[in-house]
Amino acid sequence: FKSMGVVPDKDYKVTYSGKHDNSIMGVANKDYDAAPIASSVLDRMHDKGIVNKDDLRIIWQSKLFPTTSYGYAHNLHPDLQKKITEAFLTFDWTGTALQKEFGKKSDRFIPITFKEHWTDIRTIQKTNGTKYTDESLKGLKVKKKKKKKKKG
Predict the structure, then answer these.
(1) CB atoms within 10 A of CB 40
(2) Which member of 56, 77, 94, 109 lies 3.0 to 4.6 Å from 88 by CB, making a disulfide possible if both were Cys?
(3) Alpha carbons 80 and 102: distance in angstroms, whole number
(4) Is residue 54 part of a domain?
(5) Per-residue pLDDT, 143
(6) Are 102 and 44 in contact (CB under 8 A)?
(7) 96 domain residue, yes or no
(8) Residue 12 pairs with which residues in a beta bridge?
(9) What is the pLDDT of residue 146?
(10) In the prediction, which pLDDT does 99 show?
(11) What is the pLDDT of residue 5?
């Protein structure tokens, strides 16, 4: 949006719904004017009859990127890293909750790299000044605790 001259907190208020499904429902129910969401989540909700995609307007779309991934600690023994990767890449989705959730569009895990497949997300985070430091992560924990207290 920056290249279009749209400025956060001036032109719109940033609110976090908690997950893509909530954001989609918020826009569909007119609780939110707009929301950034994963198109794959919208597709699944449409396929399940939860929302009608034709009732929503896409104002910008990134290149497709994997929305779910796994990782392992950088200091794991290489043999264990290899076994974890093999377990994911050879896992049979048939009859699992994964098959039920992702349906015909996905049937297995695929290998990805953060550098190659998440370029758009990294660009957005850089533009927004998102930093993954111990200090910023502590700030997220504090926000979560405050949110829980409000609900409880």
Answers:
(1) 17
(2) 109
(3) 28
(4) yes
(5) 62
(6) yes
(7) no
(8) 8
(9) 65
(10) 87
(11) 85
CA dist 119 → 26, 61, 66 (Å): 27, 14, 11
Q: Residue 113: inside a domain, yes or no? A: no
Nearest to 132 by CA among 107, 114, 106: 114
Residues in the chain: 152
Other Cβ atoms within 10 Å of 120 Cβ, number: 12
98 lies in a domain? Answer: no
Number of folded domains that form the chain: 1
Check residue 14 and give its pLDDT.
Answer: 82
pLDDT less than 70: residues of the chain? 67, 140-152
pLDDT single digits (tens) 42-56: 998 999 999 999 999
Give bridge partners of residue 8 from the DSSP assignment.
Answer: 12
3-state SS, the chain, equals CHHHCCCECCCECCCCCCCHHHHHHHHHCCCCCCCCCCHHHHHHHHHCCCCCHHHCCCCCCCCCCCCCCCCCCCCCCHHHHHHHHHHHHCCCCCCCHHHHHHHHHCCCCCCCCHHHHCHHHHHHHHHHCCCCCHHHHHHHHHHHHHHHHHHC
Which among 71, 68, 118 has a CA at the least distance from the CA of 98? 68
